[in-house]
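Dear Dr. H.,

I hope your travels went smoothly. While you were away I took the liberty of generating a structure for the chain from your last submission, since the lab meeting agenda had it listed for discussion. I wanted you to have the full record in hand beforehand rather than looking at slides cold. The sequence, exactly as received, is reproduced here:
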Amino acid sequence: MKIVISGAGEVGSHLAKMLSGEANNNDITVIDSNPDRLATLTECADVITVCGNPASIETLKRAGTDKADLFIAVNPSTSQNVNIVCSVLAKRLGSKKVTCRINNEEYLAYDNKYLFSEMGIDLLFYPEKIAAGEIVDLLKRTASTEAMEFGRGKLQISVYKLEEDSPIIDKTLLEFSRDFEAQELKFRVVAISRNNETIIPKVDTKFRYHDLVFIISRRDGTAPLMEYLGKKDIEINSLMIVGGGPVAEMVAKQMCHQLDRIKIIEEDKKRCVELSDKLENNVAVVNGDGRNTDLLIEEAIRSFDAFVALTESSETNILTCVAAKKMGISRTIAEVENLEYIRLAEDMGVDAVINKKLITAGRIFKFTLSDKVRFVKYMSGTNAEVLEYIVAPNTKITQSPLKEISFPKDAVIGGVIRGNDSFIAVGDTVIEAYDRVAVFALPQAVKEVDKFFK
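The corresponding predicted structure, in token form, is as follows:
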């Protein structure tokens, strides 16, 4: 697939590295007006670079947008107009699919999205808004470090961190399964993340302290699973946020009617005034440096149920969450944009991590797969992808029971939604046309998995 990426900033560079991987077999060209950013990118990714104005027709032609299967406009958020202009031009020049990063929530309104569709833009995405939605979900599901739903909750994948007192430490996957033999199969372990490696477990795989365990469950399986693991959701009535950027504002707007009180600590006085004018009365805005532990104590941090760190510094977000945890906060969430720091944050006790690059990557990666993929998500703590397919008639996946179709060893079908029913997939399961199927796959297996659904 020929892909042109406009913008070699953090998001664009991450997409270029991900999409240019050997397993993807893509031809990637990256446009940016900054030669230094392009030089840095070529050191770590196999891409062609074009230096120039991304909104210039001449630059777009040099990059080959007329032959592009996918055009991605991800210039930094301050360049929203550039993204829109180059997206429209790319479509007119011949790009088959066009996606565009924006920083204006107004554009995502239903009527406005139609306008952009008429202009030829196939997908608008606002990473900050997606991140805010993820944080809101994490504040509602506090027992796991991350979760995602299929079919409005008929199936869900949750990630649980194994602490010292976990009842499954040193048990094999087979022993874990036998503890529930008397019950109908309601959940299944699909992966384990350990020491920066993701494992698709076998029956003799043992669980270890600090493992991140990815489990798919039916709706009625969540409660017994959490009880067995000794996990429970914490009721959150109050929230402290450090950093008053767009993500913090959107989280506060979404949560202010569900919580008794929210407090935002922001260093910029002008931004504090803006937030005070925009937000509800139960949202207090404090001007100060969230890295100052004395300030946090003065603002009664110990009286809050949850703490979210959303400054522009990953290091600050991790350390303030660690400090909040030591002060007794039950639920901490950090925005960590440095991918190398994600596992470090989890090892230091941060309950959950948000990364805008991973969130965006899933939305974009969907366009490189078959049209039967409903969505793709990268979950933090692993390099694997979670995909949901709608099964087309007569595809390879429907020909035989799962145990007979040579499904890639680095992937697993976790569950199936069929009409109003949901069930966990096993070897004897036969996938049928129009089923919705949840797949967990390592990067090297994704293209092979896709072939089973084409």
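Two observations you may find useful: The chain has four domains: 2-125, 137-229, 236-329, 362-451. The two ends are 16 Å apart (CA to CA).

With kind regards,
E. W.
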